[in-house]
Fold this sequence. Notes:
- The structure is a homodimer.
- Chain A is an alpha/beta fold.
- Chain A is about 25% helix and about 25% strand.
- Chain A is built from 10 helices and 15 strands.
- In chain A, the strands form 4 sheets. The first copy, chain A, has a 5-stranded antiparallel sheet, with no helix packed on it. Chain A has a 5-stranded parallel sheet with strand order 10-9-8-11-12, sandwiched between helices. In chain A, strands 1-2 form a two-stranded antiparallel ribbon.
- Chain A is elongated and about 95 Å long.
- The mean pLDDT of chain A is about 90.
- Chains A and B meet through strand 3, helix 2, helix 3, helix 4 and strand 12 of A and strand 3, helix 2, helix 3, helix 4 and strand 12 of B.
- Strand 13 (about 270-275) of chain A pairs parallel with strand 12 (about 235-245) of chain B, so a sheet runs across the interface.
Amino acid sequence: MSDLINKQIILKSRPVGEPKESDFALVETPTPEPGEGEILSRTIYLSLDPYMRGRISGGQSYAAPVELGSVIVGGTVSQVIKSNHPQFQVGDFVLNSNGWQTYAVSKGETLRKLDPTQAPLSYSLGVLGMPGLTAYAALLDIGQPKEGETVVVSAASGAVGAVVGQIAKIKGARVVGIVGSDDKRDYIVKELGFDVGINRKTQELDSALKEAAPNGIDVYYDNTAGVILETVLPQINLGARIPLVGLISEYNATSTPPGPNLMPLLIKRALIKGFLVSDYQHRFNDFLHDITGWLQSGQLKYKEDVVVGLENAPGAFIGLLRGDNFGKLIVKVNDDPTAA
Amino acid sequence: MSDLINKQIILKSRPVGEPKESDFALVETPTPEPGEGEILSRTIYLSLDPYMRGRISGGQSYAAPVELGSVIVGGTVSQVIKSNHPQFQVGDFVLNSNGWQTYAVSKGETLRKLDPTQAPLSYSLGVLGMPGLTAYAALLDIGQPKEGETVVVSAASGAVGAVVGQIAKIKGARVVGIVGSDDKRDYIVKELGFDVGINRKTQELDSALKEAAPNGIDVYYDNTAGVILETVLPQINLGARIPLVGLISEYNATSTPPGPNLMPLLIKRALIKGFLVSDYQHRFNDFLHDITGWLQSGQLKYKEDVVVGLENAPGAFIGLLRGDNFGKLIVKVNDDPTAA
């Protein structure tokens, strides 16, 4: 053990709803020595990010939960103070995941060396790091904003949202940001160049969005889900794209929100896509070719539920919505001269 | 006018909740004469489909609503009885949209001629028509089932669902169908070859799905939304695909269901896709190149909210979830020797 005292913040109890200070505890422990291929580093900057709420709640997520009594996880920038790894020298600055503590041992392979002459060290935890890549990749690869389209982003002054809006502007979109204070609204409009900022705490979101996005919404970059997503959905345009990146509105929830809980969509990087058959007329010939072949080979079976007489259409339709029909519901209005 | 009597079913009142017989009225009117380029046809088969519920409710949808007093829309197979169009002869069978009536005039350009020797005429309203194409294109182009994956489909014995499940079997997937009666469950398993059928009215859906899809759900072909979608979501696999094709559970709803209403996703053929930054490490170099350039050119601005001292991390984190921070939240744990 080193004679350095390591200060750590550990998870004392799993928060219920909004975390309390008493869910955390500051402890002091001896600082461990690095083993072969490892380094010991002093934490300079610790990143705090909303995803940590999921890690300390212990529920299903995309990564293992933080155990009770353990140091809370987190990305860090630190300086090497002892090294048993040939690629790192004492004094080097590295990006690693020391978590909420002042010292930590880490394996050399998991580190990225930082050059403080290129950018402030802390930027690697934000605009040049995970939040920046989150903004960049989800906006450009899923949102795919085009020139002249309208992009809406929630939590718009945050680490991710501020970058999303600015990249969308660079790509030529009209950009609307949703924030929680007038200061933040002023900031995203006056400093960052968003076209419109909406303070969801003082403005009526639905009408403010309609005014801010008069041509509808093409991309909604969703950091929050919840009521903002509900309000955005009726205003989306044909073929809109919604990268679901965060569910800040639900992180502190003590019960499952009503309606479909979208958390699994995020965790599983799944997609829901609306479908209307009229968009797929170009597939009609493939369809007819394949289906006819499968019908003829017996791989595909087909059942009809035929109701006789136009006057019976209303009753049959009412039953259809109840699921009373069995097979494709057809009304035989007049005799079929070709039927056997 | 012809001397034929045309029987029509018109919309008498907009249904509230489940439609009633009294929302419809059967009327008799003279049959119109076809004009230049038009044909007059006698309806043989009328297709009844759930989408019609949206058309008679008069709300926002992807097509114009049926007006009060007007004939209800619908796809039909009919026989030409008068023709002023060179491509159609009296006696020809055509696919058109006569709606809920016994005769109609239609423009030749909107018709497809049917060959009754190839398949029963009524099939063009089902497996060889719009419902079949809906099953085929949404499953194959959005759902993209792969061999060995698990596909779940709701309303599984219906015109669309039955075709979906069988195509998924042809593509080598494990197929689970959700239906509303034991008869239908037996049918999809014993007649259509689904691996498992679930009667949602008598079985507990959550546990039945877990048993039927022990490896999780890769594709959920959603004809219903509502509680079935809610139950499916927690059981989806990484990268799952959910074509949202119908919202049968909501068509009769008199109030907006709780939680995000997914109707706009369907109407606008939009997509929601979950995002996790760890999937996008391959974009890191592009990201760093672009972001660094934008920072240097001043097109991208970046603000940090720095809290000093590890002991202040819990309070700062609690504030982050409330939105108290302004800019990327960073804890300065030790002095930064590179900072000015």
